[in-house]
Specification:
609 residues, Rossmann fold, two-stranded antiparallel ribbon, binds 2-acetamido-2-deoxy-beta-D-glucopyranose, eight-stranded mixed beta sheet, alpha/beta
Length: 609
């Protein structure tokens, strides 16, 4: 579905680490915007077109410097095709570089004033450093603190219906409605109980677009617009595009994404700091896990500085597992599962998104087309405008693209991501259970304090069988991963109440859907596996809390209906062991199976012949 990339490339929006972007296929420009007085002047003689790109940019720079003076120290050569536009300065055409890529490349590689020896990092004289008691908000406060969004991001006033929550996996995480998953409960400690442990699984924070996009893809649209910049003119709601450049990088965290993880670390310390007492008593420190990918490591570091404060060295140990082809890794399980590279099995979601976009974006396409004369605006382009809104907002703090759509169209966008991830990652994805089972095996090992029996999925014996790198007796675990893996894990756990609607249709949004990606797998999404002891319940209990919403465990065999979503740990473990036993990694990941027409799954398993 993505002709520019090899068919062996992994398909998802999020977990794709490679960097062979299409971004660089046009003559993109890495510089500051030019003041208006500079770019309205003709900057290209005909002879410039004949010079090579590099020579051309240099000549242009010199010429422009002469025209604009020292206040105009940057340049925008555009591309050859665009140049003739500048000879008609009175026509209101898109700027020759509209759609081109702008990069600022901070920090400079060899700054002239960098003298680390003059800036020692440890000068002593810290003053007194006594610490106090650990906070325990989930036990001590009368209510649970709600995380409502993103104070540093600006959205248009016309979208005050909560546009940030209508972006599927691109939404910043927020506390879902108390009853979102069907239970009237909340994460604070139920009466008669005390919390004894926490297994915390979270996603990285807001990032730039990934290098790969199955449908849409901001960089691809920027390339198309940039290549055709001399041909199109925008007006009306789209007039801003005449001066617009593409400013997004790839893959890495945005400043806001950094804040999300820092805040998450602080909020978890406030809620569960008391669990650290257990480490002091046993003379140990926690082990948190993340992966090698830049945004994964940066997310874990920001979480740690929020959770432990600066400096965090010595307070915990960070396991950085390798996310790369061939490495067993439960937090990046697709890297050893060949069938997840087969698009006929792993990218069925694209067709659903495409079909649905053709329904909900029809009006928008008709509305926007006359405002972009000279460019053939496809449904997919309009879809990218919506992606652009989300990405620009979480990267740059505001996006003009957000103003272009109605609330209903944002609901449509949100649903397009439900479709995509239902079929490509969650309960509707035939590899979900296998890809999620490694983490479930680890969870069971930790809950039972018993090493993993057989390494026959994505688990890594070297790490998992070593009690230092994979401790079993701790009261607090923190693991960082991708949204696709969170969705695999929710499916592998058999949280079937989240899949109650069954296969999602591509022609309308079903009422009361229980599978909403903006609630399950947004940026910095987080799952609390809370362990409790209660005088009202026999034996240790577990409950699962996704983005502060308590998930019913009644779909898991042996788990009773319980108003706070609790299940006895032994019942839970027995059911999960059952599912582990039913899972066949070799068949699922290596088997030669196909998907019959009309076949579907709601348990994340492949067809069995
Ligand atoms: C297990 O993880 C370690 C550390 O990341 C890595 O060196 C090793 O290659 C992995 N083993 C397998 C079989 O992938
Ligand atoms: C890696 O995973 C494969 C497939 O499950 C398994 O056969 C192998 O033993 C694992 N290797 C390690 C070191 O865990
Ligand atoms: C610490 O926590 C672990 C895991 O919950 C538990 O097994 C152990 O008894 C606790 N130790 C102390 C000293 O509280
Ligand atoms: C949606 O939920 C409401 C309230 O729970 C219920 O009354 C209604 O029948 C449900 N609709 C569908 C289509 O399931
Ligand atoms: C998994 O979920 C399905 C569907 O709700 C249910 O029939 C099955 O019993 C569950 N299995 C286990 C082991 O929990
Ligand atoms: C993997 O090992 C477990 C025992 O730890 C077993 O129940 C399960 O069936 C095995 N899966 C495969 C695919 O061999």
């Amino acid at each position: 579905m993505d002709p520019e990339r090899g068919s062996r490339e992994y398909k998802d929006y999020d977990a794709e680490p490679e960097r062979e972007s299409l971004l660089h296929s046009t003559n993109t420009i890495h510089s500051e915007p030019v003041p208006h007085s500079c770019y309205t002047r003709p900057r290209f003689g005909v002879n410039h077109l004949l010079i090579s790109f590099v020579a051309g940019t240099l000549a242009c720079f010199l010429a422009q410097y002469a025209i604009c003076g020292s206040s105009c120290f940057s340049y925008h050569p555009g591309n050859a095709a665009a140049a003739p536009v500048a000879t008609e300065p009175l026509r209101v055409l898109a700027s020759p570089w509209a759609g081109s890529t702008e990069r600022h490349n901070f920090p400079p590689t060899t700054p002239t004033n960098a003298f680390p020896s003059l800036f020692p990092t440890n000068v002593g004289y810290a003053g007194g450093t006594p610490t106090g008691a650990e906070p325990a908000v989930i036990a001590t406060a009368p209510s649970y603190p709600i995380h409502s969004g993103a104070p540093v991001l600006v959205t248009p006033e016309s979208t005050n219906y909560g546009i940030l929550r209508k972006w599927g996996n691109l939404s910043p995480w927020y506390s879902v409605d108390r009853t979102a998953f069907g239970l009237d409960s909340s994460p604070e400690t139920p009466e008669t109980c005390r919390v004894t442990g926490l297994h915390f699984l979270h996603r990285h924070g807001a990032r730039y677009p990934t290098a790969y996009a199955s449908y849409g893809g901001p960089a691809k649209l920027a390339s198309r617009l940039g290549a055709a910049a001399s041909k199109w003119t925008a007006s009306g709601d789209l007039a801003f595009m005449n001066e617009w450049t593409y400013k997004l990088g790839e893959e890495v965290l945005t400043p806001f994404g950094r804040q999300q993880l820092f805040d998450l670390g602080i909020s978890m310390r406030m809620k569960y700091g008391f669990l650290l007492k257990n480490f002091t008593e046993t003379n140990t420190i926690p082990v948190f896990r993340t992966e090698s990918q830049d945004r994964m490591l940066a997310s874990a570091m920001n979480f740690a500085i929020g959770f432990f404060g600066y400096p965090f060295e010595g307070q915990y140990q960070q396991s950085i597992t390798i996310e790369a082809a061939g490495f067993n890794n439960t937090l990046a399980p697709y890297k050893t599962c060949p069938n997840s590279n087969d698009k006929s099995k792993s990218d069925r979601g694209r067709a659903y998104v495409e079909k649905w976009a053709g329904v909900y974006l029809k009006d928008a396409q008709a509305r926007l087309t006359p405002q972009l004369v000279g460019y053939d605006l496809s449904i997919e382009d309009v879809y990218v405008f919506q992606q652009m809104c989300a990405y620009e907002t979480v990267a740059l703090g505001y996006s003009k693209f957000c103003e272009l759509f109605t609330e209903e169209e944002w609901d449509g966008f949100d649903y397009s991501l439900d479709l995509y991830f239902w079929y490509n990652s969650g309960f509707g994805f035939p590899l979900a259970r296998s890809l999620g089972i490694g983490y479930v095996q680890e969870l069971v090992a930790r809950l039972t304090h018993t090493p993993i029996e057989t390494h026959n999925s994505s688990t890594n014996a070297t790490l998992n069988d070593n009690p230092i790198t994979f401790p079993l007796g701790q009261s607090l675990y923190v693991d960082a991963t991708h949204e696709v893996v969170v969705l695999h894990v929710l499916a592998a756990l058999n949280l079937s109440t989240l899949a109650a609607q069954g296969p999602l249709p591509a022609d309308h949004i079903p009422a009361n859907r229980s599978f909403k990606v903006s609630e399950l797998a947004p940026f910095a999404t987080n799952v609390q596996f809370q362990l409790l002891e209660c005088t009202s319940q026999p034996g240790p209990q577990i409950r699962i809390i996704v983005n502060d919403g308590v998930v019913p465990l009644t779909g898991i065999e042996g788990c009773p209906e319980q108003k706070d979503g609790m299940c006895p740990v032994d019942k839970f473990v027995a059911a999960e062991k059952d599912i582990i036993g039913q899972t066949d990694w070799i068949y699922d990941c290596h088997g030669d199976w196909g998907i019959p027409d009309g076949w579907s799954t709601t348990t994340g398993e492949p067809p069995r012949s």
